[in-house]
């Protein structure tokens, strides 16, 4: 859903964010930083220790000087909502395609497999 906020002004214990530089674990009083999202899973741990996971595609993250954290993603899906059978079938198709065809189609298939 466009422009949906999954968390807004919520206090949480930790957020783990996949970036091109690696997974960034954000806790209270984290140093301000920015990063580019890598396709992967963002984990949000609330104050009671409950974990909610979201698959994100491309986007950005920022840890602000006021202690807030912002993750802006092109696509977000709750991990619990992902059709695992369809995801496995897509992965297998992408892996097969990554070894067949032209260099361009192989590169596209490798990207599909990574996402």
From TrEMBL:
<keyword id="KW-0375">Hydrogen ion transport</keyword>
<dbReference type="Pfam" id="PF02823">
    <property type="entry name" value="ATP-synt_DE_N"/>
</dbReference>
<keyword id="KW-0999">Mitochondrion inner membrane</keyword>
<dbReference type="GO" id="GO:0046933">
    <property type="term" value="F:proton-transporting ATP synthase activity, rotational mechanism"/>
</dbReference>
<feature type="domain" description="ATP synthase F1 complex delta/epsilon subunit N-terminal">
    <location>
        <begin position="2"/>
        <end position="75"/>
    </location>
</feature>
<comment type="similarity">
    <text>Belongs to the ATPase epsilon chain family.</text>
</comment>
<keyword id="KW-0813">Transport</keyword>
<keyword id="KW-0496">Mitochondrion</keyword>
<dbReference type="InterPro" id="IPR020546">
    <property type="entry name" value="ATP_synth_F1_dsu/esu_N"/>
</dbReference>
<keyword id="KW-0809">Transit peptide</keyword>
<dbReference type="GO" id="GO:0045259">
    <property type="term" value="C:proton-transporting ATP synthase complex"/>
</dbReference>
<dbReference type="InterPro" id="IPR036771">
    <property type="entry name" value="ATPsynth_dsu/esu_N"/>
</dbReference>
<keyword id="KW-0472">Membrane</keyword>
<keyword id="KW-0406">Ion transport</keyword>
<protein>
    <submittedName>
        <fullName>ATP-synt_DE_N domain-containing protein</fullName>
    </submittedName>
</protein>
<dbReference type="InterPro" id="IPR001469">
    <property type="entry name" value="ATP_synth_F1_dsu/esu"/>
</dbReference>
<dbReference type="GO" id="GO:0005743">
    <property type="term" value="C:mitochondrial inner membrane"/>
</dbReference>
């Amino acid at each position: 859903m466009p422009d949906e906020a999954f968390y807004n002004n919520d206090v949480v214990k930790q957020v783990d964010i996949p970036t091109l530089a690696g997974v960034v674990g954000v806790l209270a009083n984290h140093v301000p930083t920015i990063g580019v999202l890598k396709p992967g899973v963002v984990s949000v741990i609330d104050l009671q220790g409950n974990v909610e996971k979201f698959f994100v595609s491309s986007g950005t993250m920022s840890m602000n000087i006021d202690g807030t954290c912002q993750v802006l993603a092109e696509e977000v899906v709750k991990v619990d909502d992902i059709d695992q059978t369809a995801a496995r079938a897509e992965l297998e198709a992408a892996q097969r395609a990554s070894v067949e065809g032209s260099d361009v189609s192989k590169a596209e298939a490798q990207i599909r497999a990574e996402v």
